[in-house]
Amino acid sequence: MFSQLAALAALAGFVAAQQVGKKTTETHPKMTWQKCTAGGSCSNVNGEFIIGANWRWVHDKNGYTNCYNGNTWNTTICKDGKSCASNCAVDGASYASTYGATTSGNALRLKFVQKGDYSTNIGSRLYMMNGASKYQMYTLLGNEFTFDVDVSKLGCGLNGALYSVSMDEDGGLSKYSGNKAGAKYGTGCCDAQCPRDLKFINGEATVGDWKESTNDPNAGVGKYGSFCTEMDIWYPGEANSISTAFTPHPCTTTGQHRCEGDGCGGTYSDDRYSGTCDPDGCDFNSYRQGVRDVYGPGMTVDTTKKFTVVTKFLKGSSGQLSEIKRFYVQNGKVISNFESTIDGNPGNSLSPEFCEKQKVAFNDADIFANKGGLWDDHYANMLWLDSTFPVDADPQAPGKGRGSCETSSGVPVEIESAQANNQVVYSNFKFGPIGSTFKQP
């Protein structure tokens, strides 16, 4: 999986073993967030975070033998998907010492590299919880989501991410008989990229046809993937100190589903667009839209200091999503999203019209409309976020320059050493009706 810093606000998830281990007590980090009303009054909510199951220790349910070690399966214990799910357990997590994930008050801090007593952990993925056993569900339509973020210690090739996906609220616990762990242990992951590096999907192990990664000692790619609708509020990798974007990824299906092989589409398939979801989405990246002097160190949005991110999901007269608007707040100043300077693609928000014109201006396939419209990367080194991508393209060509990082940057083995102390801090989460989480002039 991507070596990345990630936090997830779940709408409806990485899945590893389905039984519950008892070697380490599972204690979720606690963090308060605020639920706001139409009048602008906000009240504290006691929330929790949980680390995804793909990061957890997977062992035989009666002992300490690894079911998955490095990037390979123990085929003695895991002969097939169903028996592996029955024989193996996902255990509790030590969040601070193992993963470098800590909370304090209304803040969540994620470290990139955490050196523990027995191993070194790279990256993490956390999910917001409603209590101990259910993911936090949000209805974005007609509402806004606001948070503070500090990306001053997050550089090229790294992914400071916050996004929403339509997972099952209980992580698939009630839907799949082979899943005994559920949301409490981070199961049920899906997204529009249809990840195929998941160890367990739908209560079964992906042990068959598993191919170990050639450049990631902890990951591989399996036969199956898990897909669902995704809204990148501050993800994927689309928010470091160099570049930022927000991106909806529609699907023609509802909720989490399992797919197989190249039929999944997305990052891990030969045919990127063969699945039921749009892996590209329609993104607003100011740098990519030709505005290259507004977001970054010392710029209008100064990424050396903490700032507030506001995302509004506006409902049109038809009752459907009509527009996604972005604001920033820093030093008491409200900063509207920046106007695109791309010929034929004006605007500073995402709408059906903007997205249609963007695909034409950038000469991109319009999978977004076809599917319904409105993370350190071992596959592409995060260059699609903060550099020129494809790497042989002219960085001045429309849509190809996505950030100022060099095309040689982002190599995982290099940044895991040189940028081991990188981190991201999220705080002051707020959610409520349009106009309720911050004062707009």
Automatic annotation (TrEMBL):
One of its GO terms (cellular component) is extracellular region. It holds the Pfam family Glyco_hydro_7. Keywords: Carbohydrate metabolism, Cellulose degradation, Glycosidase, Hydrolase, Polysaccharide degradation, Secreted, Signal. It is an enzyme of class 3 (hydrolase). Residues 1-17 form the signal peptide. It comes from the Eukaryota. GO terms for biological process: cellulose catabolic process. Its EC number is 3.2.1.-. It is found in: Secreted. It catalyses: Hydrolysis of (1->4)-beta-D-glucosidic linkages in cellulose and cellotetraose, releasing cellobiose from the non-reducing ends of the chains. One of its GO terms (molecular function) is cellulose 1,4-beta-cellobiosidase activity. Its main location: secreted. PANTHER family: 1,4-BETA-D-GLUCAN CELLOBIOHYDROLASE B, GLYCOSIDE HYDROLASE FAMILY 7 PROTEIN. Belongs to the glycosyl hydrolase 7 (cellulase C) family. This is Glucanase.
